[in-house]
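REQUEST ID: PR-0412
SUBMITTED BY: lab tech R.K.
PRIORITY: routine
TASK: structure prediction, single protein chain
INPUT:
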Amino acid sequence: MSLFGDLGNDDQPVFDDARVPIPDSEFDKMQRLAFEKEMLGLYISDHPLLGAEAALRRHADTTVAELRASLESADASGSTFGGEARWVGGVITSLVRKYTKKGELMATFVLEDLEAAIEVWVFPRTMIEISHLLADDAVVCVKGRLDQRDDQPKLICMELKRPELILDGGPPLRINLPPAGLTDGLVEQLKVLLVNHPGNSPVYLHVGTKILRLPDQFTVDASRALIAELRVLLGPNGLVA
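STATUS: complete
OUTPUT:
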């Protein structure tokens, strides 16, 4: 036999030309981002939290950046713990499960949002309750307290939940408010009404020639019930078509 002995044989193909079929369908967003993070170490085409900021904020009372900013007040008081426990939302990355010297399971991970990231420690007692919720690329809310006893501050997890989030915002709701009829009482009633119908649709106020977008904590579920209540409060011209 020789290295090129089969090149002259016309009965058999020289090379195997079998090709791996590539499906036409695209991976869904979360699976695609998980593959990107696994292969490249970072998200490329999107981010798990894009489009879910307002919904996530409803389940948390602070952001990672705000949590880090609270370190300044803790440093001024000389405390090794950063104030009261707070709920903060983000996506789990760099999840590591490990055992203590006593053989108890614990975990560490990085909680990342669109602005900052912080290391989170889950000790055995809490791990028993939330272990099944931990996974890389999972969007979670963590209730914890800052610990500054090491060089790098970390968040000690006390509770953890995986809220169901709608990743795409709903259609905007536009409210027409005539400047002459804009009173403190009306604004307060409107605020209560919007808060009682939480959802993912941004709210825009049309006040004369100005258009104001309300903060994310006032995003709503633009349902028929809310529309009906707005018409009762504001009259037939209270909504912009």
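NOTES: The chain has two domains: 53-161, 173-234.
REVIEWED BY: pending
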